[in-house]
Amino acid sequence: MNARGSLLIGLVMSGLILSFALIFVFVALPRFTKTTLVPGIENSTNQPGSSGPTDVLKQAADVKTQADLKAVQTQILVYYADQGKYPSSLAELISYTGTFVSNSNIMYVDCSDQSAVLYSNSSNYPGYVFNYEQVNPTSGSKAPSCS
CA-to-CA distance for 18 and 136, rounded, in angstroms? Predict the structure, then answer.
């Protein structure tokens, strides 16, 4: 093979490699790096498929709060099953179970020995109302109260 033929083959091969790289960067890469929203949590723009870094961080904080609430709810149910009453405060629950949830937005109200309210002091006030052994999830524009 002469020098002209090998030069032409080299140019064609480098062109193919460059075109595959450009196709990957402009077509395939955005498909795999698109951020998606967590179902059930609203984004600030309220447009499907559009989520910026602040929306993703807010959703992560909301998911963490929900997980913390669920963990504390489980600890409260264990306390109730062992003691036959709800704890008078989160400090009593922490000393009983030995675990601690570091979310400062979690609020706990002891209504009586047989009822209590656990909620997050954040958007939509998600939480739980405990009445005897029944647990009802809550979410509203104001904090749940003992009823």
Answer: 59
Whole-model pTM over 0.70: no
Q: Where are the domains of the chain?
A: 53-138
Q: pLDDT tens across 78-134, in order?
A: 899 998 999 988 888 888 888 777 777 888 888 888 899 888 887 777 888 888 888
Instruction: Report the C-alpha gap between 68 and 101 in whole angstroms.
Output: 6
Average pLDDT for 8-32: 85
CB 110 within 8 A of CB 104: no
* Measured distance CA(108)–CA(130) in Å, rounded: 11
For residue 71, CA distances in Å to 32, 35, 77, 81, 100 come to 32, 27, 10, 15, 10
Separate counts of helices (H) and strands (E) for the chain: 4, 4
pLDDT at 32 over 70: no
Mean pLDDT of the chain: 80
Residue 147 to residue 91: CA distance in whole angstroms: 23
DSSP 130: E
Residue 37, C-beta contacts closer than 8 angstroms, at least 6 positions apart:
43, 51, 55, 59
